[in-house]
Amino acid sequence: MTRLSGKVALVTGGARGIGRAIVERFAAEGAHVMIADIVEDEGRALAAALPDAMFHTLDVSKSADWDAAITALQARFGPLGVLVNNAGTSMSGSIADAPEADWHRIMDINALGAFLGCQRAVHAMGVHGGSIINVASSRGQRPSSGQAIYSASKAAVLSLTRSVALHCGENGLPIRCNALCPGVIETPLLRQHMASLGDEAAARVQLGAMQVMNRIGQPEEIAAAALFLASDEASFVTGAELNADGGFRIRD
Ligand SMILES: NC(=O)c1ccc[n+]([C@@H]2O[C@H](COP(=O)([O-])OP(=O)(O)OC[C@H]3O[C@@H](n4cnc5c(N)ncnc54)[C@H](O)[C@@H]3O)[C@@H](O)[C@H]2O)c1
């Protein structure tokens, strides 16, 4: 299958977890892919294993890193066509006890990172157009008291997504911008969280029950949704929030 044949894509946080699954699926569908991450060894190894991929070190919260990555991507593959703002982090903490430092760390990666990526993509895609996919979270729609900062950071990403979609429409730029909202997904980030809870088996059952489908999702299931938003099949989809969350958002 080649649903992304010839498209040039950049995936942040592409070395692990959901980002890695998106990189693998995009490459299998014919895209030229840049894996942009702070984890170099795994990113480089993944790029070497794929037909037409490259790795670039990128901390999404640093403007200069973005400029260097986009320049390198365009020199090798040509104009950017698909950006997936996937890199993100999570930390627990309620409004009563979350440290101020966590606010800056989470907002820098999740919200500022998405902002810088969208800004660079709007300039790089310009009149040629493209698709921007912001990996948010169902937590951005249905916050949790125990993840106050994370939930707020993902709500920021959802609002940013709509602003970018509006800007592109108002300025005649053929750029679509959508958010992808995963539920609980089996990734290194989640496994770290489960390990911190002590009884991992019990945590798995509890986390699975947060979805209507009563299970934890797999990164490949998020990659399939990202593929739709990246492809021309989503040609009339912009400013949308696509939930690939097993029904997390509608669960009481
Ligand atoms: N796993 C879940 O249950 C879940 C649910 C909803 C949303 N999400 C979102 O999906 C995205 C991916 O999550 P994941 O579970 O795959 O996480 P993960 O920790 O397993 O992988 C994240 C990747 O991002 C990279 N990264 C972290 N900080 C970075 C930075 N500053 N610059 C560049 N790269 C950076 C990491 O090195 C890693 O490769 C995140 O935005 C997360 O909030 C995850």
TrEMBL record:
Pfam families per the UniProt record, alphabetical: adh_short_C2
The protein's matches in InterPro entries, at most eight in alphabetical order, are given as: NAD(P)-bd_dom_sf (IPR036291), Sc_DH/Rdtase_CS (IPR020904), SDR_fam (IPR002347)
Under Enzyme Commission nomenclature, its number is 1.1.1.-
- The answer on whether this UniProt entry bears the keyword Transmembrane reads no
Q: What class of enzyme is it?
A: oxidoreductase
A GO molecular-function descriptor = oxidoreductase activity
Q: Which UniProt keywords apply?
A: Oxidoreductase
The UniProt similarity line reads: Belongs to the short-chain dehydrogenases/reductases (SDR) family.
Protein known as: SDR family NAD(P)-dependent oxidoreductase
What's the source species for this entry?
Sphingosinicella xenopeptidilytica
Its organism's taxonomic lineage begins at: Bacteria, Pseudomonadati, Pseudomonadota, Alphaproteobacteria, Sphingomonadales
